[in-house]
Known about the structure:
It is built from eleven helices and 21 strands. Strands 1-2-3-4-5-16-6 form a seven-stranded mixed beta sheet, with helices on both faces. By secondary structure, the chain is an alpha+beta fold. The chain folds into three domains: 7-122, 3-Layer(aba) Sandwich (Aminopeptidase), CATH 3.40.630; 147-300, Gcn5-related N-acetyltransferase (GNAT) (Aminopeptidase, 3-Layer(aba) Sandwich); 309-407, SCP2 sterol-binding domain (Nonspecific Lipid-transfer Protein, Chain A, 2-Layer Sandwich). The radius of gyration is 23 Å and the shape is globular.
Amino acid sequence: MKYEGYSFKKLTSDELSEFQKIVMKAYPVMLPDNFSSEAQQSWLDRMRTSNEEDPHINYIGCFKGETLVGGMVYFDFRMTLFDRFVDVGGIGLVCVDLLYKKEYAAKNIVKAFHDHYYDRGVTITALYPFRPDFYADMGYGLGKKMNRYRFKPSSLPRGSKSHIVKLGISNLKEIVDCFNRFVTKTHGMILTNEKSMKRSVSKLDVVGYKKNGELQGFLAFSFKRVDPDNFILQDLIIEELIYENSTALHELLAYLRTQADQVREMYFHTQDDFFHYLLHDPRTGGNKLFLTSQESNLQGLGIMYRIINVKKLFTDLSTFNFRNQTVKLLLSLEDDFLEVNNNKLLLNFDKGICTLLDDTNDFDVEIHMDIKAFSSMFMGVIPFKKLYSLGVAQISNLDYLDIVNRLFETDFPPITTQQF
Length: 420
């Protein structure tokens, strides 16, 4: 049987209640200790509304016979890939009933996810891994690392904040438009809409940089109590920082600096490896030292990417310029999870424009790697030269090493602020 005795379908409103129970058992520490029955009902209502009214979000159940044993959520995303938009399949809330663990339910959940988007012609999928090793075995490559910066407000640059205004629900369209303009210029970012943005705007403090009547950047943040016995001691959490130009960025940072009188420290989670250049003192508050280096941030594994249809990916990018390179490249991939990718493709690059050729014996150079390494490389997370030096990728002729490296170069690796 295709899914080893499991079947999949979109959940009904009634079935979502059982799905919620499975999620709560699968991720018990994700929920606060005081997660009341009222909060559970509110969460269930939101899931039902999304499942019924949002065509881009679908709650899918994994069944064994008539019994719901797990499930997931499909997200239909539009992502900026280099200089264009592409459809991307996202997956979240992957869960299996505790009784059915180690019976290949999770493996088949991911297989069904891949089949769903492959059949729709989507070439890229993405996820946040609870177990990177589990998803690596299914062909997912590591994405850009996430940084957590922790700093004093006084470390931020001084400056004017004359164009900073308070924003709220009435500014929702402006916020979404600003965000999506940023998306169009940023590899890896995912488009949003008013419905998705509304929850954040309604529960967070939001300010923006507005000039000549146009919102060109915004900042969303929250406060966190540090000591339950000290009501005036708090930290500030930067939840979102979007800017279309450096002037907008610096006014938003100047606004943050002015909060120093009531904020002990600020936390910022971002994939920007260079944010510490804006800080007068980039050290974390703990003054931690390793070797002769002082800690400036923590890093963690973030989103993972997978190419689920390599041939169609290059076909869809028939007008994309791969760095003006000219070479006949034989791409040899290993993909144990998706047999369709477990083959060789002859890619003919002519001044950067790629076409696929049939004769796999007529090539200039061959490269070989597994699908997870290729997925990371293609997305611009790691260059081919580095994969080769690590022994993760092979090349048949070193004279072409620089050319192959340039083919898949990107100015910046992919970043995303989308949580799912």
